[in-house]
Specification:
404 residues, alpha+beta, Arc Repressor Mutant, subunit A, Serine Threonine Protein Phosphatase 5, Tetratricopeptide repeat, Alpha-Beta Plaits, 3 domains, 11 strands, elongated, DNA-binding, DNA-binding SARP family transcriptional activator, AfsR-DnrI-RedD_regulator
């Protein structure tokens, strides 16, 4: 009989494909201690080190005695994992020698992290000899990795080095496998591999890039663009992560490939460029706003158009908006409000957490006054932001020393 110990994506121990862990509120601390021993298996551990890592907030006057009691209970639990007539040294045994504790693993205790690391090392040895053999070994290794090491223990500092190590090893192996598939020009395999990997590492830019590049190579240009839009939204809006230059430039590669492989068709190009009928103002990020701002400013100089830059400043947001669950909800509410408060063709962006920039085109007469009244009315009607916390300023686009 063998014990299979799973640590990637969570913690479990199975015998005959059945979990032998009996989880309860009483076993939580014991299993945390167990996970600690597994992380530092076959290493000598001082009692003081274990106590410092696991029970820094303990109020016990005799923490060493608490540790001894916990280890005794843990030994009793481990003994229930296999029949009594079997030798515990072939499985898991916690020993105390010369003032040190040590969890020793026997030949019948199979740890997924050891299997994973051994397979990666085997694949590395095969990589320069036999590409097909290396691919098979790397695939087997990656299938073992189910997620972050002991992910159910999210906030333990002692876990960070081991967790980072195995995550880096997973990504390193993944990219080696992608390179091997690239040598074979097997883009379908890369796509399948990347899609599977993104379930575990959704914010890893290089996986997204490899996926899109392979999509383009087999002519799935629309899928590549759709995935780019998805990934940008995931990184920027959900995680507030600014994509790298390499990632942003991947869109240029996709578009250049489309141009190179397609005949020029103005109707098709126009269709791809068209956002569809706009129902209100357009929201964009600050970089796009700067670009459009400078284009419109040059047009205004040439045609003497009546364009304005407006700044909305919100004050006292911390105290006045506690009804909002989070900042992303506030942002979404403001975007919707401004889209129907402004005119079609007006453009706005968030300058910072408390200020919004608006570019208004061809505003004549008392147009700025009408726009301000409409914004204030809608703010009062649809938000709990007080009028005294709302400041709106306008400045002609052609004035010197504007913000942008």
């Amino acid at each position: 009989m063998k014990l299979y110990i799973s640590t990637f994506g969570g913690f479990d121990i199975k015998a005959d494909n059945q979990s032998v862990l009996k989880r309860s509120s009483r076993t939580y601390k014991l299993y945390k201690l167990f996970e600690y021993f597994i992380t530092f298996r076959n290493k000598k551990l001082l009692p003081e080190t274990i106590i410092d890592n696991l029970w820094t907030d303990s109020e016990s006057s005799d923490p060493k005695n608490v540790l001894r009691t916990q280890i005794f209970r843990l030994r009793q639990i481990i003994k229930t994992f296999y029949p009594q007539d079997l030798d515990e040294s072939d499985y898991l045994s916690i020993n105390f020698l010369n003032g040190y504790y040590c969890l020793e693993t026997g030949e019948n205790a199979i740890l997924d992290l050891d299997e994973f690391e051994n397979l990666v090392n085997q694949g590395d040895l095969e990589c320069n000899k036999n590409g097909e053999s290396a691919i098979a070994i790397y695939e087997k290794a990656l299938n073992i990795y189910k997620g972050l090491y002991l992910s159910d223990n999210a906030y333990e500092v002692w876990l960070v080095p081991a967790r980072n190590y195995y995550q880096r090893l997973y990504l390193k192996t993944l990219y080696k496998l992608i390179d091997l598939f690239n040598e074979k020009n097997d883009n379908e395999a890369i796509i399948e591999l990347c899609e599977k990997s993104l379930l575990l590492e959704p914010y890893e830019e290089n996986i997204h890039i490899a996926l899109m590049e392979s999509m383009v190579k087999i002519g799935k240009n629309k899928s590549a663009i759709d995935h780019y839009d998805y990934a940008i939204n995931l990184l920027e809006k959900e995680m507030d992560i600014k994509p790298s230059t390499k990632f942003v430039k991947s869109l240029d590669k996709i578009q250049n490939n489309i141009i190179q492989k397609s005949d020029i068709d103005f109707s098709e190009i126009s269709e791809k460029l068209d956002f569809g009928e706009s129902t209100g103002a357009i929201n964009c990020n600050i970089e796009h706003f700067k670009f459009l701002f400078n284009i419109q400013k040059n047009k205004s100089q040439r045609k003497n158009e009546y364009d304005y830059l407006s700044i909305i400043t919100l004050t006292g947001m911390e105290e006045k908006n506690k009804y909002l669950d989070d900042s992303s909800r506030l942002t979404n509410d403001l975007i919707r409000l401004l889209m129907f408060s402004l005119r079609r063709g007006d453009i706005f962006t968030f300058w910072n957490d408390n200020q919004i920039l608006i570019m208004l085109h061809n505003v004549k007469g008392d147009g700025t006054k009408q726009i301000e009244e409409r914004i204030r009315t809608n703010f009062k009607k649809y938000t709990k932001i007080s009028d005294k916390n709302l400041y709106i300023d306008f400045q002609p686009l052609l004035l010197e020393n504007t913000l942008l």
